[in-house]
Amino acid sequence: MKIYFYNTLTRKKEEFKPIDEKEVKMYSCGPTVYYFAHIGNLRAYLFMDTLRRTLKYNGYKLKHVMNITDVGHLVSDADEGEDKMMKAAQRENKNPFEIANFYMNAFFADIDKLNIDKPEIIARATEHIKEMEEYVKQIIANGYTYETEDTIYFDTSKLEKYGVLSNIKIDEQKAGARVDFDQRKKNVTDFAVWIKAPENHLMKWDTFWGKCYPGWHLECSAMGHKYLGEHFDIHTGGIDHIPIHHENEIAQAKGYCGKNPANFWMHVDFLQVNGGKMSKSLNNLYTLDDLKERGYEPLVYRMFNFTSTYRAQINFTFEAMDAAKVALGRLREGYLKHKEGTEEVPAEEIQNYKDRFLEAINDDLNMPVAMSVVWEIVKQPKKSKAYQELLLDFDRVLGFDLEHYEKEENTLPEDVQKLVEERNNARANKNWSESDRIRDILIGMGYTVKDSKEGTIVEK
Ligand code: AMP
Ligand code: ZN
User: Fold this and answer.
1) What is the value of pTM for the model shown?
2) Lowest mean pLDDT among 163-177, 249-263, 424-438
3) Running DSSP on this structure, what letter comes out for residue 25?
4) Atom 9 of ligand 1 has which residue's CA nearest to it?
5) Strand ranges (DSSP E) for 309-410?
6) I want to staple 16 with a disulfide (CB 3.0 to 4.6 A). Which of 3, 135, 270, 312 is the partner?
């Protein structure tokens, strides 16, 4: 069956055909590891995962690279401000390499909890400084840069067209000067590719231009090129990457070898919270652990994401998470019931479900439609192993790990029951410190603790 993806580059849905018939080559912009990933970031990796799984389901092998940005990403994407890693290092009084290791491992733990498949190649920026140096030297040799005292800039006016993804017009930006920009740059859209490190800068390397560090955009160009070559199939990221980071990647690749590096550019839209932006100052920035504390296991968040397509904004509310929690429970229960079923199902019926499911995912990863097929199967009054096998087959794309799900007994271990009783008594006596103490013990034992009118509710 044909696959269609929306391509930001052409602004339309196009049939996807890989350059190499059997193997899809793909690059995803990965995290900047200066803090814990929030659930908005994780939406981006769930999209990446659904794309991977869909391609695999269609029989393709994958060569997929994801970078870990552990140097060079400045606080503002427009290449201004401090390096995010350095800022985090000051905040936590550690060196930036420790920061990177810590948050990279936290990120891997998060994606693992969401059952996100790891790309075949994980590329850390700091381990590819040499490749970046070679790459930038070629861009310089090709005449696409200029130097200031401490920075080598990419001269975007040297390209036939800069801004192919977002249709930016350099002249308009220059003439209108709507944006305040660093006067050392010749054009607003020019960006740093190689930067001289100030004396106190911890992340720096000996290079052809002295002690330097690379610009953020360069890492993706150099690492994509190293592992996937000059031209590959798909490049992914969040929509915030369209106007700067990805335009600059394309600019660099053109400066390097004259080619746009990827055929398809795919972008995931943002997660909103209560209809607005997620931010620390609004106190609505959640991590997976925050969700867990509120009683939502990570796979509930996966289910929540399937209520929207990746190209639409999705609005996070706890009501929607409650609905996703119920839905995940129904899916598991339906799966287990079919597992025990004995009825026959005609082969054509199964094939029909398969076709509809495949059509949905191949239509630019339309998960809401794919899930509607899943719900029809779950709700089938006939219980049959054929349905169970079908759900298991679809789970290769859905990623709920149904195969390993076994119904947990509702009965709590005796020691936990005893603690719950003690906590209920403490609360009845308004002994809040005791109630908090017991809550902490329960959390320490791996339970989430909620208060309701009926008393303490715990869940593993
Ligand atoms: P960063 O670690 O800041 O480089 O961001 C990692 C990824 O998360 C990028 O692909 C961003 O586009 C994406 N991202 C950041 N905020 C959100 C959000 N609220 N919703 C969806 N994706 C986001
Ligand atoms: Zn990137």
Assistant:
1) 0.87
2) 163-177
3) E
4) 238
5) 314-316
6) 3
